[in-house]
């Protein structure tokens, strides 16, 4: 017995040691901060570096999420890691942990205590002005296309600073999600749309409670029966044995073994929670254990957990799956028995005729009355409930040989018919009345989040016939709602116009929109092309017809450091119809140019040169884009005939990013009148910019756009400055 | 014609089939009866399919969840009242336990379950004798 106890204790101790020494434990400050930022909902990568003889660090271990570079992941660096030039990552959180201001890798002057000219050691963390200053930390510094968030380490080691900074970074994580939601329901796949609807439905919430109750009954059903009986003799140790004594024949033989294993596996949670609790205490986060367990078990995080290369996390996930399987084995016999029991109960019970007849009438009356006032789309769950109830009632009446009409006397029958006539009247007259009256809007806050800090870009989801209460803006950014410019500091009048109505005059901006309509407009109005061309490479470009020249080839230089997956790469060519019949049509040709086999980071940059089966062009210039994989993996694309390289005019790569709105071009300086062009704008929309002492009411133009029905659901409120505090 | 109007008309026809003596009418016209037992369920299925078409896959999921919810409610309603209240007490104790452990989200969830059990128990106490024929 003593030996068993000793072995058990030793086992738990070893488990604890294994956990504490695993990759999840903060072995150094980088790992520690990585977990801290992850607890603020950011996807964080780190790199392992080694110092060479010149004192410059080079990368030994690449980031975990190297495949997701360019998405919403962040690389965490310490300023003491003096990286060799050439290593790049799109978003970097740089923690200044030294007092060395001369470090050339710093994108902004920063030390352990200072950022630019702010010395945080001299401020009082609990003052409200400090919170505003902290907002500066979240404002990124962009150097060479890399976005840096520079954080003096003092902000992470001082509890009050850390709490406040955490709110900013949590808001940043929320804002990152917004860019991925752009386009609303239209851009989502039906599956995600369904999941969204389901997640927000009250019926799911109700069902969760129902299933939870059922699960508790499954686990404690026998216990309930025993506790409910009057005999005191049941309160013995046998009670705990018989709780699970109703398995199916299949499981019955091995049930004791199953439950024993289930119990043993369950007890492993004690040291795990203890170890997580210790770690949470070290990090000053009391809810760490709960958030760690929930994050690991959240099915949507499954790919991240698998890719994390974290043995403890993977082991914990696997452990929970095994526990889940045993839980199912343990509960299955009871579940089947409870189903059988319920079927027997349903068969045996008998409803009073008075109840069934009036229940059917009431359900029918309420449903038909509601149909007069509520759209079917908004009462789907109610309709399904009503239909289910009526169907079950019909089955019940059929089994009991009840004829509904015989249950009512003449007086009751007259009342029912009169009530149905009333619903008929309502269904005829109310829609007519509604057509003749103006829409009644309900009002809600523009920023409805109950969070301490909310940042632009902000995704606003809205219901039917909703307008927004005034929300005043005092910043200096250009503020947009989807593709519409709603505010520009210094401007008195803003006109939003379709890109197809573009005129190169006055002060104007061109905003990105949906790709294909934008390309169509560019083909019809080539005058826009010089404004949105780019000096650097992009995978969308235009070129002139080179018919009659030698067989063309295409050269693709692919960056392998991101381990790109194999893919079929196509060249999509857009041109205007040449002859009379096709004059107004856009011709789209897709040519398969490369079966890319994938490559690994050790390959560096790989160049693929393949013949291009070019179709006859319909116009003397075309726009083409390379599709089939992430644009970021391409370093260069060339078109060659013989020894001659065909000149390509590269266009702004932001045209291709449908997940994020951006300004493709804007005239320099400010003016009183500004025109904003976008392919997403279908009808001209002017705004008179009237500011008060409180600022500019952003809700005013947005409400007009809502009435016009041109905003997506959700729509995105964004600025040309990127991240900006909208609510503090 | 709007979709609402179509659904309303189908409900109205369902009402006529269910509440009016149509068998007498069909015996005269077609020479057959039993329409009163076959047509109403068929009509309900037609309405159900139309709603499914309008709502898409979410409608099917709603339907499955509605059946599960109705089943859970009736099973709870027909079970012994003492069991419902004991379940409420067990959940209440669990709620306190989770609250003490600092897992407030789960504690809140359990508190809602306690409320549902008490509401179900009260509903059963008040309405059982009026609904169920012993």
TrEMBL record, chain A:
The chain crosses the membrane at residues 208-227, 255-276, 321-343, 355-374, 380-397, 413-433. Keywords: Membrane, Signal, Transmembrane, Transmembrane helix. It comes from the Bacteria. Residues 1-26 form the signal peptide. This is Uncharacterized protein. The lineage of its organism: Bacteria, Katanobacteria.
Automatic annotation (TrEMBL), chain B:
Keywords: Membrane, Transmembrane, Transmembrane helix. This is Uncharacterized protein. The chain crosses the membrane at residues 6-26, 35-53, 84-103, 109-128.
